[in-house]
Amino acid sequence: MQDRSQGGITRWGVAAAIAAGGAGAVALASWLGARLSGPANSMIEAEERRYAWRHGEVTYKVKGRGAPVVLIHGIYAGASSFEYRRIFDLLARDFRVYAVDLLGFGQSQRPSLVYTPTLYETLILDFLTQVVGAADHPAFVVASSLSAAFTIRATAERPSLFSRLVLIEPTGIESRTGPVAPPVQRALLAILRSPIVGQAFYQSLTSRAGLRYYLRRIYADPNEITPKLVKTYYAQTHKPGARYPVASFIAGALDAPVRDLYGLLKMPILLVWGQRARFTPLEQARAFRQANPRAETRVYDCGDLPQEEKAAEFARDVAAWLLAPIRSRR
User: Fold this and answer.
1) Are 326 and 300 within 8 A, CB to CB?
2) For 36-95, how does the pLDDT look when each residue is reduced to its tens digit (9 = 90+)?
3) pTM over 0.85
4) 4-293+314-322 architecture in CATH?
5) Contact residues for 105 (Cβ-Cβ < 8 A; gap 6+)
6) Which of 45, 57, 93, 206 is deepest in the core (most CB within 10 A)?
7) pLDDT tens, 235-264?
C-alpha cells in the first residue's frame, strides 16, 4: 500500500489476489464501511480552506506567517495530510504552512478518474500559483514518497515556483518491478476499478486487519500502532470514491520516472530517509545522491515516516535547513 514502484505486492500478485477473492457481500461491506468508519479528519488544528480545482474540490489547512511551506503527502491507501500532523504546528512557528489533501484523498473530493502523474503534477503547479502565490514568492515544498516524484517532475517544468525541496524517501529512480506494458496496465486498472471484483479486493486490502499489517511495516516503533491510528486510516479508506486513486496506484498508472529530470534541478534539495524504511529502503538514497550531488541527506532512526516517528527532530532540522543561507550548503 506504499509506493508500489519500490516493491511490495507485485502487480501479478495483485491480479491473482483479485481473481481469487470472492465478491460476496461487497455492496453491504461498502455501505457499512462508509457509514461506520467515522470522520476522515487530518487532526491538524488550523484554518481549513477549499480550492475549487478543475477536476474536483481540494481541501487544505493553512497556518502561520512567513515564507510559504507546502506539505504534500504520499500516495497509498489511507493517505492524507494526516501524516504531517505532528510537524505542522512546529513549522508554523517560522513559516506559513499549507497541508494539502491531494485529489482523491483525505477531505478532498474523490472523483471517479483514472489518476495519473500528470494530474497530480498539474495540481501541484496550480495549487502553488493559484493558492500559495508562488509565481511572486517561490515556495518551499516538502513532499513524501511517490508525491516527491510528482514534485520533482513539476519542479522541472516550472522551477521558478520552487525555492527549495525537502524530499522524503522519493521514488522514481530505481524500480524493482519494472514498467507494466500498457495493455496489461489497462486490463488490471479495469479490474481494480470494477464495481464488484475491484471493490471486493479493495475491501480486503483496507480491512482493519489489512491496515494493521501495513502500519506495522511502515512504523519501526510498534507502540505507534494504536487502535486510534487504525481507526483513522480505516476512516480515510472507507469514504465513497477512495478506491479510485488506489486502483491507479496499484495498477502502475501513477508510476513517475524521474531519473532524467532530477539531476537537472538547481535549487537546494534535502533528501530525508528513515534508517529502517522498508518500502523505500535507505540504499535507494544512493541513486538520488549520485543523480544530483548538490542534494544533502538526513537519516533518522525510524521507519518510512520520519515526519511522524521523529517529528521534533525532523521539524527542527528542516526549519533550520530552509532558513539557512544557500551559500552555507555549497
Assistant:
1) no
2) 444 555 689 999 999 999 999 999 999 999 999 999 999 999 999 999 999 999 999 999
3) yes
4) 3-Layer(aba) Sandwich (3.40)
5) 73, 75, 79, 80, 236, 242, 245
6) 206
7) 999 999 999 999 999 999 999 999 999 999
Residue 261, C-beta contacts closer than 8 angstroms, at least 6 positions apart = 152, 153, 156
Q: How far is CA 60 from CA 19, 70, 78, 152, in A?
A: 38, 10, 16, 21
The residue extents of the domains of the chain are: 4-293+314-322
H-helix or E-strand spanning residue 51:
strand 47-53
CA dist., res. 37 & res. 197, Å (int): 21
**Cell numbers placing 75:** 500516495
**Residues 245 and 237 sit within 8 Å (Cβ to Cβ):** no
Computed on alpha carbons and rounded to an integer, the radius of gyration of the chain in Å comes to 19
**HSE of 119, CA atoms in CB hemisphere, 13 A:** 19
Spatial separation of the C-alpha atoms in residues 68 and 37, rounded to whole Å: 33
* 3-state SS class at 76: coil
- Three-class SS of residue 10? coil
